[in-house]
Amino acid sequence: MSMLPQNMQSRSDLLPVSPGEISRLQDDAAPFRRREAFSLLASLSPKRRLSLPEAARLLATGDPMVWETAAGMARAVREEVFGRRIVLFAPLYLSNECGNNCLYCGFRKDNREAGRITLSPEHAVREARFLERKGFHRLLLVSGEHPGKTDAGYIADVLRAIYRGTGMRILHVNAAPMPEEELRLLREAGAGVYQVFQETYHPETYRAMHPSGPKADFAWRLTCMDRAMRAGFRDVGIGALLGLYDYRFEVLSVIRHAESLREAYGTFPHTISVPRFKRAFGSPLREAPRPVSDDEFEKIVIVYRLSVPTAGIVVTTREPAALRDRVLDIGASQISAGSKTDPGGYEEGVRRVDSEQFELDDTRPVEEIIRMILGRGYLPSLCTSCYRRNRTGDAFTEMAADGQIRGFCLPNALLTLAEYAVSAGDPRLRDECLAAVREGKEEMEGSPLAEAFERMLSRVLAGEKDLYF
């Protein structure tokens, strides 16, 4: 019997992921023996990634020594691709008005207790200015799905307003699946990465979690990345909401989705996010149906890194601080900081529980996150250069696999860290950032960019901004 609901079966041959194939792969996966696993893990690199059947077998393996080795390899692969840099970004929520009834979300239509807010473009600019003063240069614009209030025209207007009214350098969008022509409108307005999470790749669970609204269409959501690529987006972001169904099934589905994008468009997704179920105000789902432990979460980060080496693995403030710190050592490469999930929450500085999408766990300010990253031996990066130097899509995928992106990551991370330090209000944090810049400068010796970097760094320390390779 098909796993696809009746209204999807006519389109099942067009889906980038076959749920039936993923289930069979998971069922047939035999755990690795230790020696076999060690041999495989030693062979991995940015160019020799974990295949889908190998990922299924690794996920079936319980040996702690295998996972310890896999964690070390995930960190090594991440550093081969990106070096020591960890990208920082912030979400900017535009609206919590929504026509969907997702059981896990505070924005759901039937949440009568929610305080509904849709920011005007002018209000969004004020929020972006607040985040700019905090040091952010890239934002992720997030919105509920409301045809009358948060359509593509509205989001495009916000994009243009923020670019005009602030110094933001790149804006990404997390919004509902759209027709190709509407996605093209977002791209033309300057959106960088278009991000949509499938939530769950398991059709029956998807149907149960999304009882009404446009989001109830499983196939429309699953094929949205193909429309985005045809509309001109070169970079997309995918992910599953962990905790709704068996995490092994979801992880394998995400990897298969990533592979399908590479096969069709020559590029892996630019980012893979690792969101885990969090309780939301006004949501009928109080607990995750299939909870994912911290230990399992770490395994997921490892498998994503080894299976899609060139992707940015994103861990948000949904997760506890200690866990977010740890995953930097096992493959994560992008984290949000100082986040708010209620529209207008930054400028007003007051938490409005009734307007949040979900509860946050890591509430540390960006200054503390930067200090943590430095303390673990990494470089906080506020860089946006690849989007503006056209190192995107298939070009980025190939350059990252070849180790070329790392050569840009170090100098650009150092330049943005120096720029942040110059304007930092905390003298102690400024000194810590500049010490890391001096240390990183030594790593630049022998680089073909070394001389140009020295000149640029001097200009940044003198007060210039937005210098990059």
Q: Can you tell me about this structure?
A:
The protein has 469 residues and is an alpha/beta fold. It folds into 2 domains: 79-386, TIM Barrel, CATH 3.20.20; 403-461. 46% of the residues lie in helices and 10% in strands. It is built from 20 helices and 9 strands. The chain has an 8-stranded parallel barrel with strand order 1-2-3-4-5-6-7-8, surrounded by 7 helices. It is globular, with a radius of gyration of 21 Å. The termini are far apart. The model is unreliable at 4-12 (pLDDT under 50).
Task: Spell out the blueprint of helices and strands.
Layout lengths: L18 H10 L5 H10 L8 H8 L4 H19 L2 E11 L25 H13 L4 E6 L8 H14 L4 E5 L5 H9 L2 E5 L7 H7 L8 H5 L1 H7 L4 E5 L7 H19 L5 E3 L20 H14 L4 E4 L5 H7 L6 E3 L8 H4 L17 H10 L3 E3 L3 H4 L4 H9 L2 H20 L3 H17 L6 H12 L8
Parallel strand pairs: 1-2, 1-8, 1-9, 2-3, 3-4, 4-5, 5-6, 6-7, 7-8
Helix pairs in contact: 1-11, 2-4, 3-11, 3-12, 4-12, 4-18, 5-6, 6-7, 11-12, 18-19, 18-20
Q: Mean pLDDT score, rounded?
A: 95
CATH architecture of the largest domain: Alpha-Beta Barrel
How many β-strands, per DSSP?
9
Share of β-strand residues: 5-15%
Instruction: State the CATH superfamily name of the largest domain.
Output: Aldolase class I
Catalogue the unreliable spans: 4-12
Count of DSSP H/I helices? 20
For the biggest sheet, the summary is: 8 strands, parallel, barrel
What is the CA-based Rg, rounded?
21 Å
Shape: globular
Distance between the termini: 54 Å
**Chain oligomer state:** single chain
Number of spatially distinct domains: 2
Give the H and E element order: HHHHEHEHEHEHHHEHEHEHEHHEHHHHH
Strand order of the largest sheet: 1-2-3-4-5-6-7-8
Name of the level-1 CATH class of the largest domain: Alpha Beta
- Measured as a percent range, the helix fraction is 40-55%
Counting helices, strands and paired strands, the structural category is alpha/beta
Stated plainly, the CATH topology of the largest domain is called: TIM Barrel
